[in-house]
Each structure stands twice: as structure tokens, then as C-alpha cells.
Amino acid sequence: MQLAPGLHRLGDGLINAYLLDDGGAVTIIDASVSGYWGDLPAELAAMGRTLEDVRAIVLTHGHSDHIGFAERGRRERGWPVHVHELDAALARGEVPNPAKGLGPVKIGPLLSFMWFGARHGGLRTTVVKEVATYGDGATLDVPGSPRVILVPGHTPGSAALHVPSHDALFAGDALATKAVTTGATGPMLAPFTADPAEARRSLERLRGIEAHWLLPGHGLPWTDGVEAAIARIDG
Ligand SMILES: [Zn+2]
User: Fold this and answer.
1) Which of 8, 58, 218, 223 is the most buried (most CB within 10 A)?
2) Helix, strand, or coil here: 38?
3) pLDDT-based confidence at 117, cuts 50/70/90?
4) Quick one: which of 230, 98, 68 has its CA closest to 160?
5) How far does the centroid of ligand 1 lie from the alpha carbon of residue 217, in Å?
6) What are 152-210's pLDDT values in tens digits?
């Protein structure tokens, strides 16, 4: 769906991927679960674009519900897949998920999330064979020129991506506005976070960023400002 001109979301808000148009060239932010592949042509068409216009996939981190169709895009379309250097091994499937547990769980929402993931190919996630790595502070040479802010905690290489031209900050799972494990909504640290204390400290790195669109990996867009989101997480 369109959020703003040149800014679209795949999925209905439970597991998000975003499409960013910059003068006719498109960057995909996160690759969700593999079943979203089939939704790409229609979403691109809604932007007046096609698969031919996609230049890159940028991953916010290496978790399986974010790398979904990345390998297919790389293999079939030649799209480079960018990820922070500290999450490269995770995206390539060389190390286990660093998350230690689920945290609080409500069984209904958790089962819906798992069922949704399974129906959309989450059980068939293919690791990314080759990734291009980026570092903290980099401005990526892909459409939209996202600037990288390393926000470790959810995973060691979790990154937020600031795209001033679209007034957007892609948070990945540095924060969520929906807990897939409990159904709770509003800004929060995401479930499956490896180091919650570090994740909370990392939010300090986002303070001062002006972005109308704060776009999480899970949940609906937050449009009340980055500071307000962080304040809500502080309780
Ligand atoms: Zn996630």
C-alpha cells in the first residue's frame, strides 16, 4: 500500500517490507518472508514501476522474517543485498539467531504470527548466499541514499536507515509498534531481542532525528515523532 508518494509498504503491518522510489529507481527495505515475492510486481505497478526498476535490497538486520525473498531477488534479478557487517553471518545462515527467548507471550497472537509466516513462506526462508556489507554512518549508494545508524541489541548488526528525501526512518526491529508475540501495540522494544538493555541504549542514537515516518519491521507507521516514540518506550 502507498504510505506517501514513492513510499510503499508490502504486507498489512504484521511483517513489513518497504519500497522506496527515487527518480524511477527503487530500493526495497527488508525482504520479509518469501511469500511476499508474489506481491512485489503489483506493489511496484502501483508505484508505476516494475521489477526492472529495483536496484537493491537493504536489510535492517539478518533475522529470517526480514531476509525472506532477498536471496531470490539476488539470484533471479541480480539485486545486491546490503546488510550491516555484524549481521552478515546471520543473513548468510552461518550463525544461529542470537535471540535468547520470546519474552512475554500470549499464545493467540504468537500463533497468528507463526501461522501468517508459515502461510507466506516463512518456513522456506532461504539464507542469502552473498551480501554486500555496510558500516555505521555509511550513506548507501542505492536509490534514496539511506544513512545507516547502527542500533545493536535486537541483533548485533541491527541498523536503522534514515532517508531524509522521504522524511522516513526505517527502524527495522530496533523498535516495533506491534508485538507479534502478544498483540500489544504502540512503540516498544521488539520481541526476539537478543540484548534488551543494549537495544534500549541504542535508541539514544535515534534521538534528534526528524522523520515524519517512523517505519518499524512490525506494526503500523508511527507519525508522532521519534522522540515521542522513545518516550513511550521509557514508559
Ligand atoms: Zn522481525
Assistant:
1) 58
2) helix
3) confident
4) 230
5) 6
6) 999 999 999 999 999 999 999 999 999 988 999 999 999 899 999 999 999 999 999 99
